[in-house]
């Protein structure tokens, strides 16, 4: 049988010291019951959904609030979508317990009994999500409560979670004897240099511990028996082995970071990767970033799990926090892998599209505020906005034509995956041969503007992301000559067109308004009209200079335009003309570009001037929102792939004057900010009037990474010759 399509909402409630982080609140699902009405159109037949102990009875086990859960589970029943109920998800329980508390297991079992009595129709349960991973993060590495860092507390936390699972399933089966345990954990393989073979061997044994315990396998002849017995856990091991609780389905959560490589040669890797055991120091990095040939990955993990247990499998989290086409490729390849394994008589019951509403903060391991990653929907604007993952999900089961960019090799299959000096992995010779890449034949993305900052940035992004593209110059496709556009578009037959061309010289436009208007407005509108007639989406770029700067708050997408200069007028007319068309047209307003890949931008001028030992002059009476070009094009491409239309504001999000921006650049690049000289903008001799306050904000979501992160990235990628000028 083919696999089923499941879904999951990132629902972690984890504790860091005395602060709880709740992913259901972070994504806004807590206040949006209507999110569930989006599911019937996805093809998803079952949903991993929280009935979390921390949310139901956070203060007192005798005081339970079921209202929120009642409403949502009733709605899922009405929609005919099955529920896989989770009771603790990377948590340590409410404040009155913890993973190392002797009452943790019996406490969760009481909660499980109450949940089963309230929802006796639920067949599938995951009392504790990823117990091994949670024990590592909470009791071995100290990231989460109770912030312990010893091997004994790690095993104690794991055994408490295993007992909690066993006792919870006993309580649930007293209500529903047919209830199934779907036990999840992250499963990767550890690789290592010869000097660290023992550490890798231990890691590769420990990764099975959750399932081995539940299946009653850790008995006296098990390799872990003596190790755990040395910590005094013999009686607990015997009790578990005498009354095991094997899963009905083993849920494999595997990420592109799950396979690890340990290397004793610390000098080959950045300091943040350095760590080790009590006896050895080593770097711990993603195996995918260093091994050649690459590690076994998800398919290898599934085959290993089936060979070990002969219990049906499910991919219970399929998610890639990356650009949109790479998210689609990972999900599509996981589905194809499941079908391939089923054809080999390895039962993969389901593929779970994870983080349907996205997740927040996992780049900090949920220890602090962090980045948001979209899923099938992007909720960064406050309401769910469908991404290109939704039509992909709809194309999986039953099979239909997939979105164009769901094909092709993912970054994990291309040379770009290597991020450290490569290490040869012992493997059969056939594994060392170049692996065949997924077949990928697609029409190109047409990028207009071969010489400009945006055009070149789009090229870099598409090359990095394995998006076929064709870059045209003015000679190939001249926006001032609309009569030839249709012929060229017909010949190229792109899947979308990015207009990154145009007049960019703001002050020169005052003396030459007609050429500026011809290219930026008339030519851009003509190009969009040609594309509209052929059903081709477009992406165009506008500017903060469409505003007059009279507001005392940042401008949003629906604020009226009132440009002060000819360049702004040309962009405002472009927006109005394209906005009046009926096709699929996306317009991104942005501002104050900076990039390490372009010689001619404000930030580059700041770095070069200060590197030469001089001062830098900048206006202190004009407020803008600087925009980091690599982040801009990455998000704009995602929106284009998602099929978004209309006006969007994309900036790095911090309003500040040009002088303050220059000071931030100086400080981040190691120069004295006092060498930035602030002046009124009228003293700079500009011909075009500028708005005093042109900060941009958005009502639509899709925020770029913050300015601090942009400056970090900018500094990291500065061309060496800019810095050498200081010598």
From TrEMBL:
One Gene Ontology term from the biological process aspect of the record: dTDP-rhamnose biosynthetic process
Gene3D superfamilies for this protein: Glycosidases, NAD(P)-binding Rossmann-like Domain, UDP-galactose 4-epimerase, domain 1
Xref: InterPro entries: dTDP_dehydrorham_reduct, GH, NAD(P)-bd_dom_sf, RmlD-like-bd
Span of domain RmlD-like substrate binding: 445-700
GO cellular component, one term: cytosol
Name of the protein described by the UniProt record: dTDP-4-dehydrorhamnose reductase
Sorted UniProt keywords: NADP, Oxidoreductase
Catalysed reactions, as listed in the record: dTDP-beta-L-rhamnose + NADP(+) = dTDP-4-dehydro-beta-L-rhamnose + NADPH + H(+)
Cofactor note: Binds 1 Mg(2+) ion per monomer.
First-level EC class: oxidoreductase
Family that this chain belongs to: Belongs to the dTDP-4-dehydrorhamnose reductase family.
SUPFAM superfamilies associated with the record: (Trans)glycosidases, NAD(P)-binding Rossmann-fold domains
GO MF annotation terms: dTDP-4-dehydrorhamnose reductase activity
Superkingdom of origin organism: Bacteria
Pathway: Carbohydrate biosynthesis; dTDP-L-rhamnose biosynthesis
Cofactor(s), by name: Mg(2+)
Lineage: Bacteria, Pseudomonadati, Pseudomonadota, Alphaproteobacteria, Sphingomonadales
E.C. number: 1.1.1.133
Pfam families: RmlD_sub_bind
Species whose genome carries this gene: Sphingobium chlorophenolicum L-1
